[in-house]
Amino acid sequence: MLALNLLKYELFSRWGVILGWGLGLGLFGIMYVAIYPQFEDKMAVLSEIPFYKAIGIDLGSFEGFIASSLVLNVPVILAIYVIVSSSDTLAGEEDKGTLELIVTMPLKRWQIVTTKAIALTIVTFMVLMITGATSALTLIWVRQSVEVNVSTSELFVAVMSCMPITLVFLMMGLFFSAWLPNRKTAATAATVVFLVSYFAEILAGIVPALAVIKPFILFHYFDSGATVFFIGVQAKDVWTLLVIAAIFFALALISFQRRDITVGQWPWQRAKAGDTLT
Length: 278
Prior knowledge:
The chain is an all-alpha fold. It has helices spanning 2-12, 15-46, 50-54, 62-71, 73-96, 99-103, 109-142, 152-160, 163-179, 183-206, 227-230, 235-258, 267-277.
C-alpha cells in the first residue's frame, strides 16, 4: 500500500513533465512532418551529400527524412530528461535531504527503487505516446497534399520504438544515481556514456575499420533509418536493449541496497568502510 502511495506521489509530481515534454516533443514531430511538402524537392539534393550517405541518412524520401529528423532525434532529446530525472531520483534526493525521509518509511529499499523506476518509465512512455500521436495526426493532413509510403500507424510505432533505447539511459541514470555519491557525478557519468555511444555509432558508420565495435554500441540496436518503416522494429534489437536496461536496473537495486544514506561516499570508500566494520 505504501509503495502504491509512493508511486502515485511520484506520478502526480511529474504531471507537468508529461504535458511539457509531451507537447514539446509533439510540436517537434508536428514541425518535421508538416514541413516536408514544402521542402520535398530540396531534400533530394541534400540526399546526395556524401556525409549523409556515409552515416546512412536518406533525405530523398519522406520515410528517410522522418527517420533521420524525427525518429533519430526524439530519444536524443528525451535523453536530456531521463538522465537528469533518473540521476536526481536517488543521489539528487539525498543531496536535498528528502531521501532520508523516504527510507524511514516501512518500505524495503528495493521497493523504493522499483517504484521510482516504474514512475519514470510511465512518464517517459506517456511523453512518447503524445509525441507519436501528434505526429501521426499531422501525417493525416500531410497525406492530403503529398504522396508518402508511410501510414499513420507505422509512424506512431516508429516513434514508440524510441522507448527501449530511452529506457536504457533511464535505468543507467538510476544506477549511477544509486552508485555514485551525488547527483552531479551521476548525471555526468550517464551523459558521457550517452555521448560516447551516440558519436561512436556515427563514426562506426563513417570509418569501416570501426565496424567491429558496433555490437558494443547502444545506438547500434536502435533503428533510426527508413528501414524502420519498411521492415518494422526488429524484435532482437528491442530485446537486447530491454535486457541491458534490466541489467542496469538490477545494478541500481544492488547499489542502493549497499548505499549509506547521507554519507555521500564513493563506491571504493563504501567497500573500505565495510571491510573496517567486519
